[in-house]
Amino acid sequence: MNLDPRVFDAAMDQIADKSQKRLYQTDFLAWAADVLGRRYYTRMQEIATAIATPSNGINRTAVKSANGCGKSFILSDIGTWWVTAFPPEESLAIFTANGRDQIERVVFKYLKDNYGYMAKRAKGGEGTPPIGWISEQLEWNYSKPDGSGKEAIAFGKRPADTDIVSSFQGTRKRRTFVGLDEMGGLPEDILTAAEAVTTGEESRIAGIGNPDRRGTMFYRVFTDPRVKAEWNTYTISAYDLPTMTGEVVYPDNPEGEAAIRGGLTSAKWIAHKERVWKTGGEVTFDKELGLERNLTGAPDARFKAKVLGEFPDADDRAFFPESDINAAMEREIDPEDAPVHLGVDLAAMGGDESVVMVNRGGRVRVFDKTIQYDDGGTTRETTGTWSKEDEVTSARRVHAIAKHLGAEEVRVDSAGLGGAVFAMLERLDEFADAQYFLVAVSGAQSSDDRDRWVNKRAQNHDQVRDLLRKGAVDLDPSDTALRDQMLSVTYDLTPRGSVQITPKKDMRSEMHGSPDRMDALIYALLDTTPLVGNPLRDLNKGDVVMLDPWEMLERARTMPGMPI
Within a domain: residue 8? Predict the structure, then answer.
């Protein structure tokens, strides 16, 4: 009996497919190259292999990394491999993160990209189409062969904090993969839930994140010897990236090489952070990279977490570097005819000080002269510090100092007592002769960039830190109270990497009072250009404004970010 050649070819193809699938199940890198056309840089290859097919029997892997190293990318690729290279009835991938947004916009975006690439490739006669479909409900489902309905092979979920431990129950399969994206921002109960569904010998847990915060479950995985012994732990520094090492990932594919380099942290960004997130050291020119760099400075907490992929030390929480403060106190700036800006921090009727700081072109001092002012018909004296005063008297002191100095701007803390003083300066007839522009400062407002600063308070602190680093501030060398307050300021990094200055109520115990001088300094140094430079600032309610509609259209078309 002769075998039909077509049957023979089909049988051989089936055998080849099964053989290839067995290869893919033990070699993630081969699967990624053949199915996704993907290659990884050396450090990522090592980590991906350890997650997918660990050789030491440990099925938990944690990766702390610098910014822009492709960690979420690799987590999604391994998830795709997990549910397409193995039988769907045996495989399940669960993804969680510190918010649904992160799962949807990052992890599932990459999963959809992979699905689309595989589908397009199969349509062109290469490979097999991906199984099932991905829904907008963060689920990757397939139709069960027995016709009994659909079943999930992957899903994303960030359970409520009150229901974390039980949230994944009943969803395990023989091979369950749990991907923890931004692991540093996840509560410990998430790990408990992951452990509950990865009971099979072939199951895996992989956690990735930036090492922004100590005292977390993620931190203990890397630092507690008993916990660390149960994990494969890896670190990716920005200096491991091809943008710094010069490694060529796609030697035969210029487009692929350009794409991978464009998606990773650039050498330019790293060099910039060497200059602004290090203290001391010497800035030199790197001829090979064509960039100015600071290779010898001391890295601050942000540099350690975002560039080196390391957890900050306990003493890295100091926000203002002592070397920058000392340099500012040794510096002498000639204010010449610089305008006067006042920063005013007002204390309630307690032991804290109300403080007026005077900024002339970067030279900042507490107002230390004694001048007279009218306090409701009584002549009194004031300097730039006082305590135990009511709102009206405090407003009169501020107004008198501003008039005496011919201040151009008066920046007042708008919280608490400051809010009442600001309202009086703005509304009461006795202050109608003010020639200064009044600015209300609210640290609780949203920052201009939530990925960098939690709120305006953090942004304002960071602006002063930047001015100190640039040598643009001259501080009073005898003001030890200000120096102590600045040295006491601490901060944390949120899971998304935003700077968060320690709340005042927590700082009071460290500095034995309120940071009144430092806050007044920050207000005095604020960049108020976007506010005072507004051409509409002098308009009153009811004034008529006219603008040519064609001019308005042209402005909208050419503004940054337009068209949208």
Answer: no
